[in-house]
Automatic annotation (TrEMBL), chain A:
Residues 42-314 form the G-protein coupled receptors family 1 profile domain. Its main location: membrane. Pfam families: 7tm_1. It is a multi-pass membrane protein. This is G-protein coupled receptors family 1 profile domain-containing protein. GO terms for cellular component: external side of plasma membrane. Belongs to the G-protein coupled receptor 1 family. SUPFAM superfamilies: Family A G protein-coupled receptor-like. GO terms for biological process: calcium-mediated signaling; cell chemotaxis; immune response; positive regulation of cytosolic calcium ion concentration. It comes from Conger conger (Conger eel). One of its GO terms (molecular function) is C-C chemokine binding. The chain crosses the membrane at residues 30-53, 62-82, 102-123, 144-164, 218-241, 253-272, 292-317. Keywords: Cell membrane, G-protein coupled receptor, Glycoprotein, Membrane, Receptor, Transducer, Transmembrane, Transmembrane helix.
Automatic annotation (TrEMBL), chain B:
It comes from Conger conger (Conger eel). GO terms for biological process: immune response. GO terms for molecular function: chemokine activity. This is Chemokine interleukin-8-like domain-containing protein. The keyword Signal applies.
Length: 372, 94
């Protein structure tokens, strides 16, 4: 080793992940902003609908309202995070902790609430008898479950609140202990961008948390909801297909859309995140890292997209909800459009009234719990 | 009423677009080590990369006089020798 000459080819240099950077510069202005705007508009409309036009009566209503809240918070946090990343985290240390924390809380609560919705629908459709008995306590239950979900999400985000700090990204931790500046001045004075990321005081804690945080995100923030939804919706589909009703196919299609969109949005990101966690402490090539970072950026964008699809998939697909929504539109500005909307909504009415009718007599209340 | 709403939405869109359009610097890290440890006289100095910050492995980053950054394995004896040499040079400066 020692006998060959010093050439720059065998030198490992700092890895800059340039390609990922280029992708980020395309994705952020065009895609993320569009997602934020669409997410804000869609989810605020859902909240307005619940606030002024439709009292949250069923369990699903309560869950949907909470999903919308979580998505709105996300759509507010995302631009603020990006703003701060551009401007040296000018809002400071607490903004870093808070914004990253909010981001994490919403990730967990959003995913877990979607699982709750699937469980609620499962009870309403497959366990129809039981749901009939439970109906009086339903609202209390759903509120308790929602609070539990938010508390769990908060608990899972504690490491983010605790260990995220703002610090200078000189790509280097300057050795302050020795208090000397062997460092070339041009590097030192440039200072580097301030960043908001994990900051630990001990090596052990760093190793544990850097693996634990993304692992929990993949496990609790994706696989648990996926399994719950997989079980619930497949049982629902089986029940629906057994029921003799000409509209069941429509209902099945809605269920399939919900599941397919969930998987399409979140599976790629969680697989790449899992891979990233596995190779985290391994020696690797810069080109490889660049590719991985790029894949993460793109798949994460796909996952973001889900937050603005939720209002469409869960709320506006429901007949009742659309009717309320139309009322808002009428009240706001399009009295002229009343005719068009009322016609459209009557055409698709009762997609999901179907299933309940086939399993048990009572229709209305559970149909609203299955707002599709 | 409609026009104020329109203006509000437009402002929101402009603000968000402006936020997202700016450029960021990406963090850079050592991901593996140079096979050969560079000699002290070629170096201007060094900095330390630890697992406890944004990067995921420990490394000594040497700054060459040619303006390059070289990632070295901190557990290697040769790396430590170079570090000591640079430390001595810094002491002599003061």
């Amino acid at each position: 080793m020692a006998d060959y000459n010093f050439t720059y080819e065998d030198i490992e240099e700092l890895c800059e992940t340039e390609n990922n950077h280029k992708v980020e510069q395309i994705v952020r202005p065009y895609v993320h902003s569009a997602i934020c705007i669409a997410g804000l508009l869609g989810n605020i409309l859902v909240i307005i609908t619940y606030a002024f036009y439709k009292r949250a009566k069923s369990m699903t209503d309560v869950y949907l309202l909470n999903v919308a809240l979580s998505d709105v918070l996300f759509a507010v946090a995302l631009p603020l995070i990006i703003y701060n990343e551009e401007y040296n985290w000018s809002m400071g240390r607490w903004a870093c902790k808070l914004l990253r924390g909010i981001y994490s809380v919403n990730l967990y609560s959003g995913m877990l609430l979607l699982a709750c919705i699937s469980a609620d629908r499962y009870i309403a459709i497959v366990q129809a008898r039981r749901s009939f008995r439970m109906r009086s306590r339903v609202l209390v239950y759903s509120r308790v479950i929602c609070i539990a979900v938010w508390v769990l999400a908060l608990g899972l985000s504690i490491p983010t609140f605790v260990y995220y700090e703002t610090y200078r990204d000189k790509h280097l931790d300057f050795d302050y202990k020795h208090n000397f500046s062997v460092i070339s001045t041009d590097v030192d004075t440039s200072g580097g961008q301030k960043m908001c990321y994990f900051w630990f005081e001990e090596d052990d804690m760093a190793q544990i948390m850097k693996v634990l945080v993304p692992s929990m995100q993949v496990a609790v923030g994706f696989f648990v909801p996926l399994l719950v939804m997989g079980f619930c919706y497949s049982s629902i589909v089986v029940t629906l297909l057994r029921a003799r009703n000409f509209q069941r196919h429509k209902a099945v299609r809605v269920v399939m859309a919900v599941v397919v969109v969930f998987i399409a949005c979140h599976l790629p990101y969680n697989i790449s995140l899992l891979y990233y966690t596995v190779v985290l402490f391994q020696l690797r090539e810069c080109a490889e890292e660049d590719k991985l970072a790029m894949v993460l950026t793109i798949t994460e964008t796909l996952a973001y997209l889900h937050s603005c699809l939720n209002p469409v998939l869960y709320a506006f697909i429901g007949v009742k909800f659309r009717n309320h929504f139309c009322k808002i539109l009428e009240d706001l500005w399009c009295i002229g459009k009343r005719y068009i909307y009322s016609r459209r909504s009557s055409r698709v009415t009762s997609e999901f009234y179907v299933s309940r009718r086939s399993t048990e007599g009572s229709i209305n209340e559970n149909a609203s719990s299955f707002t599709m | 009423m409609v026009s104020t709403r329109f203006i509000a939405v437009t402002l929101l869109v402009v603000f968000i677009l402006q936020t997202f359009l700016l450029q960021t610097e990406s963090a850079s890290c050592c991901l593996s080590y140079a096979k050969k440890t560079p000699m002290c006289h070629r170096m201007k100095g060094f900095t330390i990369q630890t697992n406890m910050r944004n990067c995921d492995m420990d490394a000594i980053i040497f700054h060459t006089k040619a303006g390059k950054f070289i990632c070295a394995d901190p557990s290697k004896k040769l790396t430590q020798i170079t570090v000591k040499c640079l430390n001595r040079r810094a002491m002599n400066l003061s």
